[in-house]
Structures are given as C-alpha cells and as structure tokens.
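Problem 12. The chain below contains 231 residues. Write out its predicted structure in token notation.
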Amino acid sequence: MTAAEKRVEELLDRWMASLELHARYLKLDDAAYARVEPWPRHQRPNAWVVELARKRLLEMRALVTQRTEAKDEGFAEALELMSFLTNLLGSEHIDRFIPLATGKQQDTSASGTVEQPRLRANAKPAAHRSAPRSKAPGAPPKQTARAGTTAESRPAPHAANPTPNPPPPAPDALSKLVIADAVRMLEWGREWPALAGLIARMADRPSEPEVWKILRAYRGQILSKAGRPAG
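Solution.
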C-alpha cells in the first residue's frame, strides 16, 4: 500500500467514525448537541443527511479497495488532489456540512476556546464628592504650590521599554503542513478568516481550533511567505 493509499484509508476511517457519532447525536436536543463537542459553525445534519453520507462513504470505500487491489496507485493520489482543489478553489463558506466528530467533550476553559471575547473593564463608580466647606471667617488662604513642583513642571517618568514578543517555537511537522497550506491559499486569493475552516477539512489536518492556534502562532511568517502585508 502506498503512502497516498494509506492516507486515504485513514481519512475514510475517520469519516466513518464521525458518522457513527453523528448517528448517536441525533437523539440529543439542540442544546445538548451544541455542548457535546466544540463544533465549528454549521447547520446541524439530520438523519437523512447522515444516512446519505454513510451510503456514499461505503461506496467510496469499496471503490478505493477495488483500485488498490488493481495496483492503481494513481487513484488515491487523484482523490487527494481533488480534495485539495475542492477546498482551495470550489468550496465557499457554507454552513451545511457534516463536521468531523471526534467524541471529545467541549473544552470550556479559556485556553480551549478559538476566540475569546474581549471583556470591557467595568467602569469604576464615580466617587461621591462632598460639598465644599465654607471657610471660617478670618481663615488664612491655602498656600499655593511652590514653583517647580507643579504637575506640569515635574519631569515625566521614563516609560518602561516594551518587552518584545518572544519568537514562536520552531514548527513541528504538523505545523509546517498547516503553514504551507495557509501560504498556498493566501497566494490563491483566500482571506485569512477562511483559512482554518478550509485547512481543517483536508486530509491529515488537525481540527479547526488546533489549526487556529497554529495560524495565530505563525501569522507573521505565513503572511511574509504569501507576500501579504502584516496587520
């Protein structure tokens, strides 16, 4: 079995395992379904869609087995190439797809979210100002500040030198794969917000939250390689 055939077999296995989970999730209500996994944005698949995907997947598995036994090594490579081109050129940002289910519970911690909303600082309540006291008759006027000690004349404190962000660690093999995918997609005209969803749907790629972590960590490197302005 060639490397491409092995990758296709592993991808089909992951898809089948995902459909088995989706078949179990059909019994959940919408609230429980939303919490069972860290889903990307999508329209929840119904029983008919899940069953149709299962039927087509079995047909694809039988076809792959047939071509593998016939020593057609180019078939698996063609499937991978078509999958890449479909994600790169043909697919638009749509909500109607069956996301990959892994059986992992949703991580509700701050580190496990894809995008953390920025909380506005609570406005401090205004301090109650006491009414000005009337001066006692004959009281001496308050002394004025000495020259050279006013706020305007005081030297401004030296601003602390900002600490530069440490460079990201050297990317591992999976990060290099995601970086290369992102560079190609940017060169082909895709926009940054759409990259994670497109890359996560490709074979042998991590989940969308993991892709986002890699993209954010190596954003400068990716934009530089793709000839895009940083910002």
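Discussion. Residues 3-90 form one domain. Students who got a different answer should revisit the alignment rule from Section 12.3.
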